Amino acid sequence: MNIIISNSSSEPIYEQIKKEIKQAIYSNELKEEEILPSVRVMANDLKISFLTVKKAYDELEAEGFIKTVQGKGSYVLPKNLELLREEKLKEIEKNISTIVKLSKIYGITEEEVVNLIRIMFEEDL
Amino acid sequence: MNIIISNSSSEPIYEQIKKEIKQAIYSNELKEEEILPSVRVMANDLKISFLTVKKAYDELEAEGFIKTVQGKGSYVLPKNLELLREEKLKEIEKNISTIVKLSKIYGITEEEVVNLIRIMFEEDL
DNA sequence: CGAACTGTTATATTTAATATATAACAGTAT
DNA sequence: ATACTGTTATATATTAAATATAACAGTTCG
Predict the structure, then answer these.
(1) What is the pTM of this model?
(2) Alpha carbons A115 and A125: distance in angstroms, whole number
(3) Which of A73, A100, B34, B106 has the greatest count of CB atoms below 10 A from its CB?
(4) pLDDT digits (tens), chain B, 125 positions
(5) Distance between start and end Cα atoms, chain B
(6) Optimal mutation site among B19, B85, B90, B121, interface A, most CBs of chain A within 10 A
């Protein structure tokens, strides 16, 4: 479990932690049943408050990705890859919706957008 | 000048105002040299503080879209459509970058994304 | 059992961004 | 002059995020 957070990011720390854990679950870096670092250990590693880590874990549990048991810790639930993929697909759709709205207002064509997509997809393989 | 703001939006009111004015400038609803509502008038209309409107106007001026003169008011600068378009293009690129990153991690293909784009472009013409 | 881990909860504080209220001041137009 | 403009300063309120600290509770293991 290798979490990297940015203190200066506008994105809240607990959100950054959530994202990285989801990604680790998806990429199988974190396997089913695997125990996550305890809130205090991770807080210590990241030099942040354990309450911030707890917030991330609480939300990950509410979203069905991990399970926390008092006294024991938090572990990765039988992962629902489809769930994760769907969640991200929704995020992508939201971004696309923003793009389409902006494009229509500011006279950017469908082809221009598609070209950008294609170019950026090829980059940094 | 017809500004609509949402009190419940997570987007700051001054940002909403900025966006709507930029859009109005782009669509020529607000023409070159046209006087914007005074900060107090708009604040009154929207039932918000004039300081919030001032913040929006100040930033619009810093970004080169309007000009404010003490005692007179704020008016639309000779508009630089290209500037606006470029600004929005950057916003779009940022969104695309997010999309591409997510897609690569979560196994969503270029074609899937392009299809979504095409579908959403056709919708709500 | 007891020590050393886990997580939980409550309280209080800090910081930054947003938004507000109010009052006083300054420029412009008529 | 008056009535608009914008400007500035001060103070306050709200919210989200993050923190610090202390006390409490469950689990594990020697």
Answers:
(1) 0.86
(2) 17
(3) A100
(4) 789 999 889 999 999 999 999 999 999 999 999 999 999 999 999 999 999 999 999 999 999 999 999 999 999 999 788 888 988 999 999 999 999 999 988 889 999 999 999 999 988 65
(5) 24
(6) B121
